[in-house]
Specification:
alpha/beta; single chain; NDH-2; globular; flavoprotein; about 450 residues; FAD; five-stranded parallel β-sheet; FAD/NAD-binding_dom; seven-stranded mixed β-sheet
């Protein structure tokens, strides 16, 4: 007689982003009652759909609609709000610093490493002090309020040098995140200027700095050139093959000798593997990612799986040309990997064989502001309104839950008829300031 398990299989998912949430969602749909317990660990109680962050920052989408509450969606899973600090597979434990400050260990039978990448920074003088990231919903909200508050201050000052500094906006990094953030914020600021007396579009100085000789390497070189041309037509200065030497005190110094002052410096120059993985006994590649098979099983560790930005999953669509090719870290792969990962875990629990992940990269779409975009899908290159529509259609398709799809669609419809919102809610960054003044008066 086969032995009967005394308790359900304990599945622990470290990370509640694309991979973590979608994998947990797939597991709670496929697992039989009592077959396994699923625990999701993440510092935030929500998953952020990052492709929509630029539109949230620009006022086209309500920020709350870009995030998905984990506890609401994963109603058959255990959601733990805390930061995983260590994984010891030799003991099958995950050490977590919980939201209230205490540390706890979680034991597992099956582990899923679904950690997201973090911003890759460089030792540039001034970057830690003045740089602003664009990876979380908090940063998107902050950027929106920050840019609009610069317009308020510029309209109030009589100092031409201060106004020039306030109206200088810099984005460092020419990948998708940088280009879409730059284009959406510039579009928002241009729209907002109609409500500011004494300010005109030519007063603003928007700058893109990219260290390589092209932007958005995921699309064709021709579309990259087209995108630069469109940005420059909007008065945006693009520095390609250029690096930032320093930005101390907001004084931006480029390696071609260009110098200018800016009060808004946005850093989107790449990502790197989560450093927490160094505090694990999982096998890592030279880039700090978890080494995996094509079925997303961690090499040499039965019962351990990984997918997403911090995993080195072989890209079977390219391994004939390059045997070392791995899937690039983007939402397209992360979402598709997680859906197969849930099936593979269930199959493995039931004695089946997991399937290899194979997905040929179909292309990319990018929004460049309202009614503007570029698309390179299946070799078909599109520009303008059609590409912009494809961008929105593609991402709303992959937005989790019908609830969030509907809310985003309503936001877009309202913006279509009533225009962008141009209200800066800067008080949220100092919520007690007015009350403190009242108590001292």
């Amino acid at each position: 007689m086969a032995a009967v398990k005394s308790q359900p299989t304990r599945i622990v998912i470290v990370g509640g982003g694309y991979v973590g949430m979608y994998t947990a969602l797939g597991l709670q749909r496929k697992l039989r009652s009592g077959e396994a317990s699923v625990t999701v660990i993440d510092p935030q109680p929500h998953m952020t759909y990052q492709p929509f962050l630029p539109e949230a920052a620009a006022g086209s989408i309500e920020p709350r609609h870009v995030v998905v509450p984990l506890r609401k969606v994963l109603n058959r899973c255990h959601v733990v709000t805390g930061r995983a600090t260590k994984i010891e597979h030799s003991r099958k434990t995950v050490t977590v610093s919980l939201a209230d400050g205490h540390v706890e260990e979680f034991e597992y039978d099956v582990l899923v490493s679904a950690l997201g990448a973090i911003s890759r920074t460089l030792p540039i003088p001034g970057l830690p002090e003045v740089g602003i990231g664009m990876k979380t919903i908090g940063e998107a909200i902050y950027l929106r309020n920050h840019v609009l508050s610069r317009l308020d201050q510029a309209a109030s000052t009589n100092d031409p040098e201060l106004r020039k500094r306030l109206l200088s906006f810099v984005v460092i990094g020419g990948g998708f995140a940088g280009i879409e953030t730059l284009a959406e914020l510039e579009d928002m600021a241009r729209y907002a200027l109609r409500y500011y007396e004494g300010l005109k579009h030519s007063d603003m100085h928007w700058v893109l700095v990219e260290a390589t000789n092209r932007i958005m390497p995921e699309v064709s070189a021709r579309l990259g050139v087209y995108t630069v041309e469109q940005l420059e037509k909007r008065g945006i200065t693009c520095y390609l093959d250029t690096r930032v030497k320093s930005m101390e005190g907001g004084r931006v110094v480029l390696d071609d000798g260009t110098e200018f002052d800016s009060d808004t410096i946005i850093w989107t120059a790449g990502m790197k593997a989560n450093p927490m993985l160094r505090d694990t006994d999982l096998p890592l590649d030279p880039r700090g990612r978890v080494q995996c098979t094509a079925a997303m099983q961690v090499v040499g560790l039965p019962g351990v799986w990984a997918a997403g930005d911090c995993s080195a999953v072989p890209d079977l669509s390219r391994t004939e040309e390059d045997p070392t090719a791995t899937c690039v870290p983007n939402a397209q792969h992360a979402i598709r990997q997680s859906k197969l990962l849930a099936k593979n875990i269930v199959a493995s629990l039931r004695g089946g064989k997991p399937k290899d992940y194979h997905h040929k990269y179909v292309g990319s779409v990018a929004g460049l502001g309202l009614y503007k975009g570029v698309a390179d899908v299946y070799g078909i290159r599109l520009k303008g309104v059609v590409a912009w529509f494809m961008h929105r259609t593609y991402h709303v398709m992959f937005m989790p839950t019908v609830n969030r799809k509907f809310r985003v669609f309503v936001d877009w419809t309202q913006a279509l008829f009533s225009g962008r919102e141009v209200v800066a809610l800067g008080q949220i960054h100092e919520p007690k300031a007015e009350f403190d003044r009242a108590t001292k008066s």
